[in-house]
Amino acid sequence: MLQNKIVVQDKTATIRPYAWQRSKKVLKNTTPVQIIHRNITGLPDCQYIHTIPAVIFSSSGFIGNLFHEFNEVIIPLFITSRHFQSNVQFILSDYRPSFMRRYAQILSHLSSYQVMNPGANESIHCFPAGVVVGLKFHTYLSINTSSNINPGGYSMLNFKQFLRESYNIKEIHMDTKRPKLFLISRVNSRKFLNEEEMVNTMEDLGFDVFIGRPNQMSNLTKISKLVSSSSVMVGAHGAGLTNELFLPVGAVMIQVVPLGLEWASTAYFGKPARVMGLHYLEYKIQPEESSLINMYRRDDPVIVNPQSIFAKSFRAGRDLYISGQNLKIDIRRFRKTLVEARQLIERDSLAP
């Protein structure tokens, strides 16, 4: 691969091919691709000449985080390469076998060719048809349909359909008599301290509850089929809510919003849910439902003004609200949100 060097006619530049360009830490860990002039002497001859174009991208970012991998790799890759109709060669800088295993079905539906690892392939490959270096981030779990960086004019509904094709998900009609509810269970932070009580309430309201445990959530093949057959998905703010991508149009996504995470909850999952054709409901916890209430006074800024904590130090805010709190849900109040979800499902079933 000429060690991540791209030879072109009239450009000299260095690009770190990761879609999220705002994080210095991520870019520091992203192997650069050097673009050099063709007329530089001493370049070796081509060993392989390809008749198809290539896309070079990196998976160096927030490793293992479903939200970031879809947000900054998979969706941008779909936007960039889908219009090639699988006639494109992927070159994965910062190649990770775990990433390849996790997204094998998606990658194989975007390209008919084996993904190339430049770190293990020292041959000289030439792509006269052109090379796209790097991907472009649009916005959180969304696609800008009017952008000139969206050559196929794709929408998130197109992407959801692509996922259904990739995972061979059949069209499923939602059961309104006993609708399936998929509950995302967490263990390290933002976990439901009274999860059993929540499940009992869900079942009392007529839901058929399936619980996604942390050790199951990494298997996208299984999870995609469970979520795609669900009428409702419930979870606290976190990467697991990325599975809203697999919910059928018309399903309900309920996000439990922990203390201090209102903005991120709406931006990362709330607004995208509506663009995907989902009903979106928020259950914003009260301070008494956060485990932080056991450590701070009711009038402490940590409780009454979380944004002041983030303003002083993002790390301090992250440690408190993202990593440091769990949730004990007020069942009587939460029940109203579940009832609203049932009503939305039933209303849609009666629509012509």
What would your notes on this structure say?
The chain is of the alpha/beta class and 352 residues long. The chain is built from twelve helices and 13 strands. It folds into two domains: 5-154, no CATH class; 180-350, Rossmann fold (3-Layer(aba) Sandwich). Helix 4 crosses helix 5 and helix 10 packs across helix 11 (314-322). It is globular.
In brief, what are we looking at here?
The protein is an alpha/beta fold.
Could you please say which CATH topology of the largest domain applies here? Rossmann fold
Radius of gyration: 23 Å
Low-confidence spans: none
Ends distance:
57 Å
- Number of helical segments? 12
What is the arithmetic mean of pLDDT? 91
Strand line-up of the largest beta sheet? 10-9-11-12-13
Estimated share of beta-strand residues: 15-25%
How many discrete domains?
A: 2
Give the total of beta strands.
13
Q: Give the name of the CATH architecture of the largest domain.
A: 3-Layer(aba) Sandwich
Please bin the fraction of helical residues: 25-40%
Order of SSEs: EEHEEEHEHHEEHEHEHEEHEHHHH
CATH C-level category of the largest domain:
Alpha Beta
- Note the main sheet: 5 strands, parallel
Task: Please identify the structural class as seen in this structure.
Answer: alpha/beta
Which word captures the global form? Answer: globular
